[in-house]
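Archive maintenance. Older records in this collection stored only the sequence; we are now back-filling the structure field for every entry so that each record is complete. The fields below show one back-filled record exactly as it appears after the update. Entries are processed alphabetically, and Membrane bound O-acyl transferase family-domain-containing protein is next in the queue.

ARCHIVE ENTRY
Title: Membrane bound O-acyl transferase family-domain-containing protein
Organism field: Thelephora terrestris
Length field: 412
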Amino acid sequence: MGRNLWAEFLLFEVLHCLVFFPTRRRAYRAVILVAMIYLAAHIYLTTETTKPVELVCTMGQRISLHFGSVAYLMFTEGSFPDHWKRVRDEVHAKADTDGRNRLPSNFTLTKKLWWMVDLKHSVRMVGWVQEPRDCLPPPPPPSRRTFLWKTFFKFIAYVVLLDLFKLMFVQNPVFDTRAHDPTDGPETYLAALPLLRRAPYVLGFGLWIALSFKTVQSFWALVCVGLAGSSPTLWPDMWGRWRDAYTLRKLWGRTWHQTMRPMLAGLGKLVANKILGFPRGTNLSSYTQLYIAFFLSGLFHFAGEFMYERRIVYRSFIFFPLQAVAITLEDFVIFISKRLLLQRGSKLDPGNPNGSWPEVIARVVGYLWVTLWFCWTLPIYIDEASLAGYYTTERGTISQFLFGRWKLWADV
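Back-filled structure field:
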């Protein structure tokens, strides 16, 4: 890696926090942003090695996400910083008749610093007035003890399952470079399997991603609620219900992790409504936001891949825009189907858990469609990364112990 890479990245994190200090002075933020841009360019362009893989990719993605969060918070809604308010800053609203003491720019220094740190780590805006309540799962009850016990046992379960899921990658020709000849191309990995045989790997890969996010979130929830006194209500699950994933739109919009949802939605509205001037609620506005969201998703993932392996960066710019195209076609098919059914006096609501048999069948067909779509497109996303050694990993502690015991028993 580049010289002092981790120190530079830590400095970048500090600058990203300082840029949100609640002051109205634009010159202050301009200086911080210039320093962030210079430091980010230096980090990206001076990376010399690519180990450890996960940390390098995470670093690249975090840098790009931080720039996205700056754009979202400062340019999408009202004036920064006074437009962005925490719910707890609104509790005593009646005690402040003119509201001036509740503006972040008028906080005391200590309160400003806490507000700044809180905003930096509030990617999903949970606990803020601007929280997007239409997509986040409901918050857990405020009982700290109950939350800590449940989260602790979930964390243990996630760690064990994540360890066992590593067996899906180790020495598996679908993922692991070591199981291939050095001259093999990406088409010899997941794409080499017949379409229907890919389904277990596609579903397993999705569950592995979900477990990874859940493990990290559970760890930080235990730390922040148990040690820092954070409220359990600020830690809703970042995943929606998997039973809602019977269309691509619902999978990406409701089920898949909501880490970037507020930012992507805000930047999409900025482009569609303020820059291009499309009226809110129109198809032009809606689909512009859709394509902007998936383009930005590709860009953020590209940033991590660029840090790791320059040759695989194009995969994100194919995979994520393809999702927007498929959702557009899916919407068209659903629209035509509903029109035809209405003309015959029928109406389907597959989302109704107590629906009729036709609605259940429509939902099953939806699950099959989503699964087949990812069986076709997921190799685009992961095979180049597999070829570059991204998924070449070792067995975890638990799976290695079980594997060793199994070999010992088999040799007896």
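Update note: The chain has two domains: 1-121, 122-411. DSSP finds twelve helices and no strands in the chain.
Entry marked complete.
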